[in-house]
Every structure is written in structure tokens, then in C-alpha cells.
Automatic annotation (TrEMBL):
Chain segments carrying region Disordered: 1-21
Gene3D superfamilies for the chain: P-loop containing nucleotide triphosphate hydrolases
Protein name: Interferon-induced protein 44-like
Superkingdom to which the source organism belongs: Eukaryota
Annotated InterPro entries: P-loop_NTPase
Length: 280
């Protein structure tokens, strides 16, 4: 009776819903929300325990650390620069050794200092962790060459760090070098002891979207969430401490959608830092 099952057309595999009904992080992209973020950062006041809020940016070579700082500075100076993207460092895409050679302090404003570092070098696990501990404890002066940090016997006056940001490109999220994972594990172990909060900043989100408008649904993308969940678990960082962004890399002008994600990232870092300052 009836046709044999072989004559039925093959049923397509059910496709997973590409978008989650609820985003895993709420970001509002209105003009109002953007302005509020700008104001929140401009009016930031550290806890009275600290004179400035100090954020340390870490990550492997070429993950986008310096670009993040440049991108945020362009965003915060939007009016003054007429929306142009500022570029303060010559970058070499695909470089194996770090372009950034010294501990460089950038001020977002009078109250916010952000410290740029050289990318992790894989074969130097132990020295990397010792150097980073010194920086976090405020024992390294700005401008010091990374190669000189362990050679110096004199204790230097630096700024104590209130929030550490680990930068990872979404490219590398799925196939991190095992040597790099060991560096991260050792580092995160050390950081847990100091109780300094750690945020995970995932860069190169532009590689996941076709057009700028698509950034708005980034936190509803099932595939993105899965990728990042794996990464966060491996790094022992909670998903509430993960931020996904795209830096300005070839754009001449800033754009409010990317800008909202960048400012949201900074606002989250400032909040984490302030909670730590309260307990200092
Ligand atoms: N497409 C894309 N390119 C990016 C992004 N962030 C950075 N880049 C590019 O990646 C390259 C490296 O970026 P940097 O910001 O210099 O990386 P870094 O982490 O400071 O690297 P080191 O200082 O060498 O350790 C540059 O060519 C950037 O333009 C991003 O979000 N998307
Ligand atoms: Mg750099």
C-alpha cells in the first residue's frame, strides 16, 4: 500500500536555530545608550582607595591589544577628532614577536589609565608570569622595557593594577596553542591568588559578521556562544566576564554600533576595577 519509503524525498536535517531567543549579554544600541556609555566613562571616579583606575591589557602577539586601546581612544575623542580613527602605532599584521616592547601607559582621561603590554611569548612561561605579577603589584614603572624588568634589582614605583584584561582573537579561540594554554593557566592561577578581577576580551568579531548591522545580534548567535563558552571554561573565566568586540582596523571613521560594543567593554572593566578597589 502506498509508496515505499524509498520514494519519499529525503528529509532535510533540522537546522539549529542560528539565533538564541535571549542574548547572553544585553547591549542596547540606541543613540541614548551610546551617549550614556560615553558619559559613564568620562565621569568615572575611582573608589577613594585609588587615585586612578588602572587596567592592564594582556594577550598573545597580534591579538589586538594596542588596537583596542587605539579604538577606544578614537571613540572617546569622537567630537575632537571629528569621528576619525586615530592610529598611534605602526602595526605589522602577522608578526611573531610583539610590536609593543615597553610597558606603555595610555590615559583615557584623568582618572583612567590603561597599560599596554607585549604579547605573551610561548617559550617563556615562568618569566612571563613573574613579570606580570610585578606589573600587577605596581612594581614596574611605565616605559620600562619588558626585557629589563627582571634585570632591575631596585624596586620601581608603578601603578597597582585593578583589573586585568586578557585579549584573545576569535580566530584562535578554538585552536589555542597548548603552550599558550599553559601560559594562561599559570597566569590565571597567579591572578586568582591576587584577587584582581580578570575580563576576557574577544577581538576580531568582524570575522563573524557580514555587515555592521549584524554586530547587534552577536550575543544571540548560538555558534558564537558555543565557541566562547569552550574558551571561557578552559580559561576558568565566567561568561559574565567575557566581552566580544571588533577593533577599528581599516576604517577611517568610527561607527556607533562597533563603538557601543567597545564602550560597553570599557564600562564593564571599570565596574570590575571599582569593586576590587573597594576591597583594597
Ligand atoms: N579584522 C580585525 N583586525 C584586527 C582587530 N584587532 C586588531 N586587528 C589587526 O591585527 C593586527 C595586530 O593588532 P595589534 O593591536 O597590533 O595587536 P597587539 O595585540 O597589540 O600585538 P603586539 O603588540 O605585537 O603583541 C593589526 O594589523 C590590527 O589592525 C580586529 O578586531 N579585527
Ligand atoms: Mg601591541
Amino acid at each position: 500500500m502506498g509508496g515505499s519509503s524509498s520514494s519519499e524525498p529525503p528529509r532535510p536535517e533540522p537546522k539549529p536555530e542560528p539565533l538564541l531567543p535571549i542574548p547572553w549579554r544585553e547591549v542596547e544600541f540606541s543613540d541614548y545608550a551610546y551617549k550614556k556609555l560615553q558619559e559613564e566613562i568620562k565621569n568615572h571616579q575611582p573608589h577613594p582607595n585609588a587615585s586612578t583606575t588602572n587596567i592592564l591589557i594582556l594577550g598573545s602577539v597580534g591579538s589586538g591589544k594596542s588596537s583596542f586601546i587605539n579604538s577606544v581612544r578614537s571613540e572617546l575623542r569622537r567630537e575632537e577628532l571629528n569621528g576619525r580613527v586615530q592610529n598611534i602605532q605602526a602595526v605589522r599584521p602577522g608578526a611573531q614577536t610583539s610590536v609593543t616592547q615597553r610597558l606603555k601607559c595610555h590615559k583615557f582621561n584623568d582618572k583612567i589609565k590603561i597599560f599596554d603590554t607585549a604579547g605573551f611569548e610561548l617559550e617563556k612561561t615562568v618569566t612571563t608570569t613573574i613579570i606580570l605579577k610585578k606589573i600587577i603589584d605596581g612594581e614596574v614603572a611605565e616605559g620600562t622595557k619588558f626585557d629589563d624588568i627582571l634585570k632591575t634589582k631596585i624596586k620601581m614605583e608603578g601603578d597597582k593594577i585593578h583589573c586585568v584584561v586578557l585579549v584573545i582573537s576569535i580566530y584562535n579561540a578554538e585552536n589555542l596553542d597548548p603552550a599558550l594554554i599553559r601560559v594562561y593557566e599559570e597566569f590565571i592561577g597567579m591572578l586568582t591568588e591576587t584577587e584582581v578581577p580578570c575580563q576576557l576580551l574577544v577581538t576580531f568579531a568582524d570575522k563573524l559578521v557580514e555587515k555592521t548591522e549584524d554586530f547587534k545580534s552577536l550575543y544571540r548567535r548560538r555558534d558564537v556562544k558555543q565557541k566562547i563558552e569552550k574558551l571561557a571554561k578552559m580559561m576558568r573565566i565566567s561568561m559574565s566576564n567575557v566581552i566580544v568586540i571588533s577593533n577599528y582596523f581599516e576604517e577611517m571613521k568610527i561607527n556607533q554600533i562597533k563603538g557601543t560594543l567597545l564602550l560597553e567593554a570599557v564600562a564593564q572593566m571599570l565596574t570590575a576595577a571599582k569593586v576590587f578597589q573597594e576591597r583594597m
